Amino acid sequence: MKASRRIPPSAFEEDLAAFFRARENSDARHQAAFERFAETGFPNRRVEGWKWSDFAGALRSAAANTDSAAHDVIASSPFAALNPLEFLIIDGVPQKPAAVIDGLEYGIVDPMATIPDLESHAIVNLNVAMTERAVGLTLRDGVLLDRPILIRHIQTKPQPAFAKVLMRICDGASATLIETFEGIGAGFASLLAHVDLREDAQLQRYVVDQSDNAGVSHSMFAVKIDKDASFRQTSLSTGGRLVRHETLAHFCGDGATAHIDSVALLGGERHADFTTHVLHKAPGCKIRQLHKGVARDRGRAVFQGKFEVERDAQKTDAKMTANALLLTDGAEANHKPELEIYADDVECAHGSTVGALDDDALFYLRQRGLSEHQARALLIEAFAGEVIDAIEDDQLRSLFAGRVAAWLEEQQ
């Protein structure tokens, strides 16, 4: 039986429906996806897995302004120093770079429907219905790409934006993907990415989310990891009104590995949610996951992680850790680590802690001449540094560390 709505459609959802009906290029795939979305609407706090991230509530008073005003001037990215192949996706509209790179095929393509695992996901269904063009990338067999791929998701006006990325890393190939989320205003943004990581391939993904204080956004990164392939992801978010980054990883071949790390740095009333679901379908796979959340004022850091181990996925090695620092009384951290295991020869564990800065450590640093702000900043940098220091590339590690330092300066 299909789920039905529990709350009436909001004005924002009605505006989206009117905009969808007015489009001339919607096909049966778009229509089916929008119907699935309309049955449930945006997730709300009554839905398990969304009780700490109420998208329906955050968007209830939003306006689906669909005009197409001129884009603002786009500033250069700090990651430009890495000489990346740069894609701009401005208000959901992708732009193709002019460069030519041996072994990498890319372009602006027709988006495909989503995978069956995500057909019950309301925001993914909305993305499938609304996205008109996608960024498509294929890295050929054995190509070790020496330039990173930079995809910048930029919001320049308060209107809904929907984007999609389709990526295939073929056998034995290796790539680095950097994604940044930048924007202004109270718009809603949605990203859906489907990635196929073939046998013995490698992908390093780095995410920096600098959404606007009033922004509401959602991203879903779905990656299929084949035999002996390796996936590493490091994310840093300073939140927004409501920001949620989801990762769906499927181990589909034996001997595959993954590291999924994240840091949330939240002040004011910013909200960041990192939610992951890792499905082990093959034996001998290994994953390590580490989340660090820092919140002050009325900031809220949410972490939800699930390792699901199927019966055939023997010899699985999976460990998950989530830690949070609350710097003021009004800050919140909500953690939900889960293990669902059907195999009997595995090593799986999870842990979660929430606490404050250590008073003895602060006292020790103050006694050695540091101001209170300097002492607190040093301890916070060390706390987040467990994720940042694991970045192997020196330039990328420095850029991430610089973003942490900039956030600490802003909190003075």
List the helices and strands and how they pair.
Elements: H1 11-22, H2 28-40, H3 55-59, E1 85-90, E2 93-95, E3 104-109, H4 122-130, E4 134-139, E5 149-155, E6 161-169, E7 174-183, E8 188-197, E9 202-210, E10 216-225, E11 230-237, E12 242-251, E13 257-266, E14 271-280, E15 286-295, E16 300-309, E17 317-326, E18 332-341, E19 347-355, H5 359-367, H6 372-388, H7 394-410
Parallel strand pairs: 1-5, 4-6, 5-7, 6-8, 7-9, 8-10, 9-11, 10-12, 11-13, 12-14, 13-15, 14-16, 15-17, 16-18, 17-19
Antiparallel strand pairs: 1-2, 3-4
Helix pairs in contact: 2-4, 5-6, 6-7
Percentage of residues in DSSP E strands: 35-45%
Spans of at least 5 consecutive residues whose pLDDT stays below 50 are none
The best one-word shape is globular
Strand order of the largest sheet: 2-1-5-7-9-11-13-15-17-19
Instruction: Tell how many strands the DSSP assignment holds.
Output: 19
- The overall average pLDDT, rounded, is 93
